[in-house]
Amino acid sequence: MKKIKILTDSCSDLSGELLEKYDIDYGRMNIVHNGEEKLATLTWDEYSPKQLYDIMRNGERITTTQVPAQEFMRIFRKYLDEGCDIIYIGCSSKQSGSVNTGIVVSKELLKEYPGSRISCIDSLNASVGEGMLAIHAAELLAAGKSFDEIVAEIKAVRKRVNQFVTVHSLDALKRAGRVKASSAFLGNLMGVKPIIVSDVNGDQTPIKKVRGRANSFEEIVSLLKDAMENPSEETVYVAHADCNPEELEMIKNLISQKIGCKEIRMVYIGPIIGASIGPDAIGIWGFGKEVTYKVGEAK
User: Fold this and answer.
1) Taking residues 160-186, what's their average pLDDT?
2) What is the spatial order of strands in the sheet that 36-40 belongs to?
3) 223 — phi, psi (to 5°)?
4) 123 and 91 in contact (C-beta within 8 Å)?
5) CB 85 within 8 A of CB 117
6) What CA–CA distance (Å, rounded) separates 86 from 71?
7) What is the model's pLDDT at position 169?
8) H/E run at residue 183
9) Kindly report the CA angle at 298 between 292 and 299, in degrees rounded to 5?
């Protein structure tokens, strides 16, 4: 059987440890601060998490790019030269143009590599929701599944990724154009914490508002508990934007008490997602019921 390489991108928020454990590589996006462009690496080579999020805490804006075409050329060619077929699981096309760029680049490259295959899959998710699918693909590969079987399974389960995220401040969402300045001011004043999900089409959208940080933690854990079907057999992922240790311990305890999952994995929200959602955001993810909610529907 031909070798297969699983790829994702900077939006997947997989830690260096998880990338190594599952033999996953990723296309690098870029962050831009004060006119300087740097690679958005998941191993935090340019900034530490604290350095990056302190920039935003100081009110400075960081912008981002999708995976550039030349980066796709680099990483696809690297594994094609090694004789691999490639499965790239990318950030939701509602949030990034990377998957579409990957498709364009792959069509050009495959003219040079007859008999090779590249599948670019829209994960319909971002952050750890995307990363979970890349890990699942790597597990399927390790279990001996074929290229077509892995692609079919990832497309089948991508709508079973359940995400519940809350933010500490609405300021970053305001700077990213996700909420109006007046709404952000009033929301911060009242201590309002939106609960954000990834809908059936991969759009990030708030489904409800909760007052108070502790209440928002309780809410996202309760929502994930209701969404999961076999929690004792599943891993729950926690991704955070440089939250303090006490808050991380709080959310971990809530998950253990309310959900009782097989394992809890904690990672940082990486530079790309972090630039939009801001410091001290926190979210939890797990496989469960199929997501059917669409932006604009009553919840």
Assistant:
1) 61
2) 36-40, 29-33, 63-65
3) -65, -40
4) yes
5) yes
6) 15
7) 67
8) helix 181-190
9) 65
Q: Is the pLDDT of residue 112 over 80?
A: yes
Please state, in angstroms and rounded to a whole number, the distance separating the CA atoms of residues 49 and 149. Answer: 37
Return the residue matching tokens 């599944």: 145
N residues, the chain: 299
Strands of the sheet containing 118-122, edge to edge, are 25-27, 4-9, 85-90, 118-122
CA-CA distance, 18 to 22, in Å (whole number)?
A: 6
In angstroms, the CA 205 to CA 76 distance is 32
**H/E/C letters for each residue in 13-65?**
CCCHHHHHHCCCEEECEEEEECCEEEEECCCCCCCCHHHHHHHHHCCCCCEEE
Compute the C-alpha angle 268/262/143, nearest 5°: 90
Chain centroid to CA 68: how far? 18
pLDDT per position as a tens digit, 18-59: 999 999 999 999 999 999 999 999 999 999 999 999 999 998
| Statement: residue 183 has pLDDT above 60 | no
Question: C-alpha distances in angstroms, 292 versus 56, 105, 163?
Answer: 34, 32, 13
pLDDT tens per residue across span 130-142: 999 999 999 999 9
Do the beta carbons of residue 60 and residue 32 sit within 8 Å? no
Is pLDDT of 175 > 70? no
Q: Which amino acid is at 102?
A: G
Q: Considering only 62-71, 132-141, 204-213, 276-285, which range has the smallest mean pLDDT?
A: 204-213
